[in-house]
Amino acid sequence: MTEVRQVSRTPDAPEKVRRRGFLKEMLGLGAAATVIPIAPAQAAMGSQPPRRPGHAGKRYGMLVDLRKCIGCQACTVSCSIENEPPLGQFRTTVLQYEVNLPDLAQAAMLSLPRLCNHCDTPPCVPVCPVQATFQREDGIVLVDNDRCVGCGYCVQACPYDARFINHETQTADKCTFCEHRLDVGLLPACVESCVGGARVIGDLNDPESAISRQMAEHKDEIKVLKPGMNTNPHVFYIGLPDEFVDGIDGQASVRPILDM
Asked: Any long-range contacts for 229-233 (C-beta under 8 Å, 24+ apart)?
């Protein structure tokens, strides 16, 4: 894993720190006698809060072609440079697996990019006690860091382990599809830096967009992670082995060996 150092970050204003600390302390008092509910998160998926303004009429999604991914981690590095998470924390990464195939003498390598799936029914949104996690009209799921109290409910509710508590801000953090770049007509850092062209992002409501054309061309090969969770994820994969569809839990260590 390439080490990425933080470039710069403006510290929170003192009043924000005091306010966030107070809210976290009050929330902690209420949570002390209870266990953070994970099961109710799934039950709450049917009561999604209203979406907030975004690119009206659009629905963003990402298609990852695993046949083109070489595991170079350029996406991981460029994302870290663009979004400046703390050292050792990542919004996207590429997990590498050694897979034992019965007809091969040596283990094959599979590179699997991971990131927030920007689900249509994201379980992270309804569990947020302060409505800091929200979804835009175009499907992008974001975190309002001014509201977030770092309780971790959304982190535990995410079935893809795509969220984490930022060590510096003490608030929830994750991939945002680089919405600040999309808003000005640019590609997300991970898409722009992919040397193999494995990542494509675009408007799924536009049948002429690059992602729509590729998904139509490969419709029988498209898969998502954990479809049984009924979150309707909008990160799609080409070339994903069946064994990985439901068998990926959390941020696995680099290059675990799987028998297939």
From this structure: 229/42, 229/123, 229/159, 230/45, 230/121, 231/45, 231/117, 231/119, 231/120, 231/121, 231/122, 231/123, 231/159, 232/119, 232/120, 232/121, 233/117, 233/118, 233/119, 233/160
The closest alpha carbon to 235, from 124, 140, 118, belongs to 118
Per the CB < 8 A criterion, the answer to whether 225 and 117 are in contact is: yes
At 103 the pLDDT is 66
Query: If DSSP codes are grouped into helix, strand and coil, which group holds residue 234?
Result: coil
Place 254 in a pLDDT band, splitting at 50, 70 and 90.
Answer: very low
Q: Token digits for 12?
A: 């929170």
Most confident of the following: 35-44, 98-107, 125-134: 125-134
196 token code pair = 């193999």
